[in-house]
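Our preliminary data section would be incomplete without showing what the modeling component actually yields. Below, a chain of 212 amino acids is followed by its predicted structure, encoded as tokens that our downstream tools consume directly.
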Amino acid sequence: MGARREHDQRIGMTDAIRVIPANEAPWEDIAAVFGTRGSSSACFCQRYKLHPGEAFSKFPAEERALRLREQTNAGEPIAESTSGLVAYMGDEPVGWCAVEPRPAYFGLLRVYRTPWEGRAENKADASVWSVTCVLVRAGFRKRGVAYALARAAVEHAHSRGARALEAYPMRTDAGEITWDEIHVGAESIFAAAGMAEVTRPGKRRAVMRVDF
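Predicted structure:
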């Protein structure tokens, strides 16, 4: 446990940015990244976590926030699991990345068809991890935070036994992309982290992957 925690504390670090597993961050820091306005403060990274029969519009933001707090095990450094990573610049929380074993994302497996087009994948393979969200706090964008989070996601998944890591980014060269759409991350940040395109299921979407 001690060796893994020491490794986790190093992942994604640069001279200006450090990234830690979300269970090592206080909930107040995670909530600060999601903010109080805009789509991130309404979603709290629950869109891909919904169980069969749950409608996103049927439960309030407060419930989504509560679920995220429980999923991250925020403020519990000895927790065995968490649902993401938190980036800091100095002591300021500036970014979030959702990264977990792929079966944790019920919506990704059962609702969203795009990532699976042209692939014969065992969606329930827990040895394959996924990145479903990369969020940079307003005021800290275009400063390398997303790149640090993508690198950290690769190291985090690898250190916790993943066989592979996937991401489903938008292709920014394919035309105008809204801020809401780019929550899955841009192709460039995952390429810089060592991931490669495996399929291109749509004009604006790619599936990227690294096998360990």
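Residues 37 and 186 are 22 Å apart (CA to CA). The radius of gyration is 16 Å. Preliminary results of this kind motivate Aim 1 of the renewal.
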